[in-house]
Amino acid sequence: MTVISSANVNGIRAAAKKGFLEWMADTKAEVVCLQEVRAEVDQFPEVLRELDGWHAVWAPAAAKGRAGVAVLSRREPERTAIGFGSAEFDNSGRYAEIDLPGLTVASLYLPSGEVGTERQDEKERFMAEFIVHLTELRARSAAEGREVVVCGDWNIAHREADLKNWRANQKKAGFLPEERAWFTRVLDEAGYVDVVRRLNPDQEGPYSWWSYRGRAFDNDAGWRIDYQLATPGLAARCTDAHVERAATHAERWSDHAPVTAVFDRGQLL
């Protein structure tokens, strides 16, 4: 079995004070993808700079205090990459990937956007470039006999079942028709599989992000915007995929919850 987890930490220094380190110590995952790290490595608490037993690829953003992704692996990667060949986005702390035997794992933090602003324009430019990368990555990996899983905060709720109050959010970034159509293209044209939805086809959610405002978490009024999208061969071997929702509001160390998937891959890791 191979266990892969993904989590938007909403600032790794803050998360480390709230329980993230304890979660890392307890996780059974062989690979952990992080998003919204929002710090340079030299700003981390000492315990985070060299996590015992982990090989880390950190990809901070050129803009200080923004974005930032990472891929942590118990096994030393055969190859690492930051960015996906984009002149605009490779230094924005939004993408990193590693190669392990027979498997490429990537961590993604797609821009959140905001309707009617430059942030939404940025999101659309990112999506236009990124789907090309996803398509090429799948084709290249297939030629090499590799599987792929792209984990992270995609900042899009794909279906009505992916957010609690979908009717009130149809004109908001994250649930716009054009964003949802793009996500469909990732599945249908680029050929990836949403492993959580594959195993939970009729479920509302499971949500992975809840606003800190009001009682969103207590009422489970959330969004499912954190995904693991895998190539079909790997997705077919996914035996479990779920959101690690905290038991109580007080036990949360981020406004997101980890998404964890278990793959039957033998001893490749």
Tell me briefly what this model is.
Residues 6-256 form the Endonuclease/exonuclease/phosphatase domain. InterPro entries: AP_endonuc_1, Endo/exonu/phosph_ase_sf, Endo/exonuclease/phosphatase, ExoIII-like. The chain has helices at residues 12-18, 20-26, 46-49, 118-143, 177-188, 195-199, 232-235; strands at residues 2-8, 31-35, 55-59, 69-73, 79-82, 95-100, 103-109, 147-153, 193-194, 226-230, 238-243, 259-263.
Verbal overview:
The chain is an alpha+beta fold and 269 residues long. It has a single domain (2-263), classed as Deoxyribonuclease I, Chain A, CATH 3.60.10. It is 24% helix and 24% strand. It has seven helices and twelve strands. A six-stranded mixed β-sheet has the order 3-4-2-1-12-11. Strands 5-6-7-8-10-9 form a six-stranded mixed β-sheet. Helix 4 (118-143) links the parallel strand 7 (103-109) and strand 8 (147-153). Helix 4 (118-143) packs parallel to helix 5 (177-188).
Total discrete domains: 1
> In sequence order, what are the helices and strands, one letter per element?
EHHEHEEEEEHEHEHEHEE
Number of helices: 7
CATH class: Alpha Beta
Biggest sheet strand order reads: 3-4-2-1-12-11
Principal-axes shape call = globular
**Main pleated sheet:** 6 strands, mixed
Poorly predicted runs are none
Report how far apart the termini are.
9 Å
| Computed structural class | alpha+beta
Family: Belongs to the DNA repair enzymes AP/ExoA family.
Cofactor: Mg(2+)
Enzyme class: hydrolase
GO molecular function: double-stranded DNA 3'-5' DNA exonuclease activity
